[in-house]
Write a structure and sequence with these properties.
The protein is α/β, with parallel strands linked by helices. It contains 32 helices and 20 strands. Strands 6-5-9-4-10-11-3-12 form an eight-stranded mixed sheet, with helices on both faces. The chain has a six-stranded parallel sheet with strand order 13-20-19-16-18-17, with helices on both faces. A two-stranded antiparallel sheet has the order 1-2.
Length: 886
């Protein structure tokens, strides 16, 4: 993580000007508008009226219903023998205005079904409910009956959820039909079936995900409501990572001016980019020693000059912050930022929003500790938000809370805790199995301890694999291994209560109500039926050679009948008789190598295909070791590697010469400017160019500046391009053919790095050769590099989802706001419980449900997650540093 307390550089300024996507923009506006209406719902799916842009009337509504669905409904009633169960009370002879008829005739109504028009979406599920229920009752084969019942219930559940969405001007007749169909088949719905298939019905139901309303998270609703009343307050804001905590300040600026404090500058820049995309007025305080170092974005400028050439804003007067709505600052700059904002706005109109205050709190001593303590002690803003997924709980921060109330006597304390669980991001142990409390011990008492801990830290629910949860629930219920109070009807009033969070909470309740004499049976069953989530790739060995299982000769089979080919072992029968002992005579592939039990570790070869949908982050405190391991395991031939390293070393030599010449050029330009001016007054580039032309026109030899520039250009042209064959780039086509042929590689994710970016990296000086080779493989490295340009390029590639993998040290877990689908926690990490949770929070931050995994190389890290700790350094340090009396 980049926690350097320095000023923004040019690339960082440029990055915040890049607009967010339209989808992100919609979310930002929802959050901002949600401040005044916390129950806001937005859904951009179009109804027939919205698509056709026809003025609404009941007459037109009935006409459109009959036009598109009337005949189809009559066919369904007849086909599925529904009799009087469904009736259509719409006049088929409705007359509409001529103008409307012409508009309809000119519309491409035939393609409406392909345009995701909502009524057609609903009608498709209605058709499927009728079809599969009919097939279920008219099928003889039991297996087909089960499949049809499952399909019928899937469409029933989906339709039930879809009709609750906030679609504007949806046809009332379709809604009535949907409600009628749901009513007819209500008695056929089985909650066990829905839970058993909850991954398909809920987690990966593309229809529900695609057409869902945009709404605020519950924790956003709470914090917006809290700040509606103006009085001093301290808000402890705890919610999972990736659920919009750092975007909440955008909405708070509707009523307040917000000072956003962040140790991780990347988080601050991401917020700035979002704010500028919705034209919020932003100021920056990074690396400030006084208010004079604060800089305003153009939107926030009150006093400025006009650029005569462009007509836009020229020089900004940064001392006037009257228009600032959001001040983004690092820890070092908080006090200058606070006094700056206080000079323009009353204190009770300001909010200090401290993002991730637990950063560095796992260290006994850290250079930030004194700064944090000073910031808290000298703070004069009466409204404070401490925001973190791993913030200590209310009862754990007694000294901090008492100190705040002592300073602001009328202050109220608010504890906002959210446990969003819209995704499953399974924890995978070093053996490749998904982890849940019931797998952690054969001792039921220990399991109950893990369950109690999970109830106290419900954020862990998102790391419970829904498939494993539902399998366990169904097994227990079908075998009657829980007491009677765990019947589903007592915990779920109806299918409206069936969602991912409620099912996982029920799982915890169920574990606490197992019949004690059944636990041994349950453990044995779990061990026998448990399936590896990351199975061993046994199709190839560690060199990429195809593994063919040897075929043995059975007792009594004559030796002559054994095929002597490359795919079988040849045996002789000792003693020659039937049933005699077999001994190996010869074998192919000498020696036959068996791959080690990697379970997903060989990320550049045989396990890469398991990394799907998006980039992966590999967190380790020995980044260099992991990087070299990735290169070593890639099995790049010695000759290819030598040619590659030779090119890199040659380029390093050229880059060094370029850097020396560029340094010399800067010196010569400076001298030339002073020579032209006859003083130390700065001269513009155009004056230098004119000076060079004058020298050439007078017949004098080319200037020193021109010579240097030409020499630099010549050297740059000599940079040798470096590239790897696709066979050595994880999950490229030829790579998959070699390492995962015959396996399911449909969703395997690979890098997409443009040649220009590769060439740019090759021209960087001071970058380890290993990092350059890794980049050619689609792997970036986040560590403290000597060349900041490398880090900036890696950030850009990560943000654009173009890297296959990022290797990062544990200090980067707070600062990587990118969307990862998979993560590794290395064996060498020494993390507190809170920091492990922060590491887990890097995965699954995007808005869609994909296949996610969190892969642990040391099972002790998993046990630490589920164990209650009483002596947490974060709690001690926060009570000590967020306290004026120390």
């Amino acid at each position: 993580m980049d926690m350097q307390q320095r000023k923004l550089n040019k690339s960082e300024w440029d990055s915040i000007e890049i607009p967010v996507s339209q989808q992100e923009n919609d979310v930002l506006h929802l959050i901002i508008d949600g401040y005044t209406d916390v129950n806001i719902k937005v859904n951009k799916t179009k109804s027939i009226f919205a698509y056709l842009k026809i003025e609404y009337s009941e007459k037109m509504e009935d006409f459109l219903f009959h036009q598109f669905f009337g005949d189809k409904i009559q066919e369904l009633i007849k086909l599925y023998k529904l009799g009087d169960k469904i009736t259509v009370n719409v006049n088929p002879k409705i007359q509409i205005k001529t103008a409307d008829r012409i508009r309809l005739e000119n519309s491409d109504t035939n393609s409406m079904k392909d345009q995701d028009i909502y009524e057609f979406v609903l009608f498709e599920h209605i058709e499927n409910i009728l079809k599969f229920n009919f097939m279920a009752t008219n099928t003889i084969i039991e297996k087909n009956i089960e499949i049809n019942i499952k399909n019928a219930q899937f469409h029933y559940f989906t339709l039930f959820k879809l009709i609750q969405n906030n679609i504007q001007q949806i046809n009332r007749n379709i809604l009535q039909l949907a409600h009628k169909v749901l009513e007819i088949f209500e008695e056929t719905i089985n909650m066990e079936t829905i839970i058993e298939n909850s991954v398909e019905f809920i987690e990966k139901n593309k229809c529900l995900l695609k057409y869902a309303d945009l709404t605020l998270y519950e924790h956003q609703k709470e914090i917006f409501t809290v700040f509606k009343k103006k009085h001093p307050k301290l808000v402890l804001y705890i919610a999972p990572t990736g659920t919009g905590k750092t975007l909440s300040p955008l909405a708070l600026t509707q009523q307040y001016k917000v000072i956003f404090v962040c140790a991780a500058r990347h988080v601050g820049l991401a917020l700035a980019k979002a704010a500028i995309s919705v034209q919020k007025r932003v100021a920056f305080a990074f690396g400030c020693t006084s208010a004079a170092d604060i800089r305003l974005h153009y939107y926030a400028a009150n006093d400025y000059t006009i650029n005569k050439r462009s007509g836009g804003i020229g020089k900004v007067d940064n001392s006037n912050g009257q228009k600032v709505e959001l001040m983004i600052c690092d820890i070092k700059s908080y006090l200058p930022a606070m006094y700056y904002m206080k000079s323009f706005f009353p204190r009770d109109e300001l909010i200090t929003y401290w993002d991730e205050p637990t950063i560095t709190m796992d260290y006994a001593e850290h250079e930030f500790h004194d700064i944090i303590h000073t910031n808290w002690r000298e703070n004069v803003i009466p409204n404070m938000v401490l925001s973190s997924a791993t913030l200590p709980k209310l009862h754990e921060l007694t000294e901090t809370i008492a100190d705040f109330k002592n300073k602001f006597s009328k202050a109220d304390i608010f504890n906002i805790v959210s446990h969003d669980c819209k995704k499953s991001i399974p924890l995978i142990n070093k053996d490749g199995f998904a982890v849940l409390p019931h797998y952690l011990s054969d001792n039921y008492s220990k399991v109950l301890e893990y369950v109690k801990h999970s109830e106290n830290y419900l954020t862990l629910l998102r790391y419970f694999d829904l498939k494993e949860v539902s399998t366990f629930i169904i097994y227990i219920l079908k075998n009657g291994f829980a007491n009677s109070k765990m019947k589903l009807e007592r915990h779920f009033e109806g299918i409206d209560d069936l969602n991912m969070k409620n099912i996982k909470v029920y799982y915890l309740n169920l574990l606490q109500n197992i019949l004690s004499d059944k636990w041994e049976t349950i453990c044995i069953h779990a061990k026998i039926t448990r399936v590896q989530r990351i199975p061993l790739n046994e199709t190839v060995d560690n060199k990429g050679n195809k593994i063919v299982k040897a075929r043995s000769v059975g007792p009594g089979v004559p030796l002559s009948n054994s095929n002597n080919n490359n795919n079988s072992s040849i045996f002789k029968i000792a003693g020659g008789g039937a049933g005699s002992e077999l001994s190996r005579q010869s074998s192919v592939q000498q020696p036959l190598t068996t791959p080690p039990s990697s379970n997903g570790l060989l990320v550049t070869t045989k396990d890469s295909y398991t990394l799907t949908d998006g980039p992966t982050i590999f967190i380790s405190d020995d980044v260099e070791k992991i990087g070299k391991f990735c290169v070593q395991q890639a099995n790049i031939p010695a000759l290819t590697m030598k040619e590659l390293i030779d090119k890199i070393e040659y380029n390093n030599f050229i880059n060094k010469k370029i850097m020396e010449l560029e340094t010399e050029l800067e010196s010569v330009v400076d001298k030339t400017q002073r020579a032209i001016a006859g003083s130390d007054k700065p001269i513009k580039d155009k004056d230098v160019r004119k000076f060079n032309r004058d020298v050439e026109l007078n017949g004098v030899s080319i200037s020193e500046i021109s010579n240097l520039k030409k020499e630099i250009d010549m050297l740059k042209s000599n940079i040798k391009p470096a590239a790897l064959n696709d066979t050595f780039i994880p999950n490229k086509h030829h790579h998959l053919v070699k390492w995962a042929n015959g396996l399911n590689t449909t969703d395997a994710f690979t890098s997409n790095i443009e040649e220009g970016i590769v060439n740019k990296i090759m021209t960087l000086y001071g970058i380890d050769d290993t990092w350059k080779v890794l980049l050619l493989m689609g792997i970036g490295v986040f560590t403290n590099h000597n060349n900041i340009q490398y880090t900036e390029i890696m950030k850009q590639l990560a943000d654009e989802q173009k890297l296959y993998m990022i290797i990062a040290s544990s200090d980067y877990i707070y600062g990587t706001n990118y969307s990862f689908c998979h993560g590794y926690l290395s064996k060498d990490l020494n993390l507190t419980q809170e920091k492990i949770i922060q590491a887990l929070g890097r995965i699954g931050r995007n808005n869609v449900q994909q296949n996610y995994t969190l892969r642990f190389r040391d099972n002790e890290h998993i046990m630490k997650l589920f164990t209650t700790e009483t002596d947490k350094p974060e709690i001690k340090n926060m009570n000590r540093l967020f306290n004026s009396t120390f």
